[in-house]
């Protein structure tokens, strides 16, 4: 794999989760552009730099030791990538402070480097949180590959930070450079809320939650077919999002025990708040993580999952396949994984390679709900 070479450092980086013969590198031309641009500016050792949405730690690890750098983002896998890539390049795993996106970073910051996220609501929330956290003369420099840089990103920078200058394109990447101005305080439009009729609950959704404005159609298809009569079963909602599958299941199974896990810190924050609102003080485990990687083997009876089919801008079934493998490890013999998926993804044949029996619970023209028994 090529190294991330900039005036700050030469780094050997890996993606998360790791896979054999990884076809993709852990950085791109936008990372290089951001660092090369920053290197052209006079930076003292005490310059405070905030890095937002660093893919796998390349930006923050490059700056460690050169400036006072803090990293913040919404991806547990990106955070894990930062720690592993620091160690891989002979730095301490905790050399760069990390602030999950469920918490606001505390400035003042002289420079903010932003990888423009796929969800612009996350960018908007992050820019709003920079209010009062920028030092005089601060710059916010956002970077992305041009194909992933919507015009609205520049509009958000202009609205919440100040005048924006777009750079020339380099290797199909572009920067948007915003100079901080005094702005009237803005009120965040997040979290958003919507209500369901069945079950009758209200769901709160922080900025980066999938389908923030309403229930996604896959989950809508899944809800009527969640397993009943689970008794005291140990159930995990894998990739829980706002927690709706676990909450709907828990309402039907008052004695079951639930674990909710997602790699988005904002999803975990949303799920935790939604569980409390719907279930009161009922015991639950809600955590950010790399799926069920940290789950003890044969410690679950049921896993519920609406698997993702992309990681950041990359589309594919690698994450779903990995979740199925994790579920198999975590389930007891005789335990079951229930999933919903687009018909065309062909999950039935994938599950049949891992599980003893796979049956179709229900289907509509777009989705299938499958039960795979270990």
UniProtKB/TrEMBL annotation:
It catalyses: guanosine(1835) in 23S rRNA + S-adenosyl-L-methionine = N(2)-methylguanosine(1835) in 23S rRNA + S-adenosyl-L-homocysteine + H(+). Its EC number is 2.1.1.174. One of its GO terms (molecular function) is 23S rRNA (guanine(1835)-N(2))-methyltransferase activity. The keyword rRNA processing applies. Keywords: Cytoplasm, Methyltransferase, rRNA processing, S-adenosyl-L-methionine, Transferase. GO terms for cellular component: cytoplasm. This is Ribosomal RNA large subunit methyltransferase G. It is found in: Cytoplasm. Specifically methylates the guanine in position 1835 (m2G1835) of 23S rRNA. It comes from the Bacteria. Pfam families: MTS, RLMG_N. Belongs to the methyltransferase superfamily. RlmG family. Residues 2-181 form the RlmG N-terminal domain. Residues 201-371 form the Methyltransferase small domain.
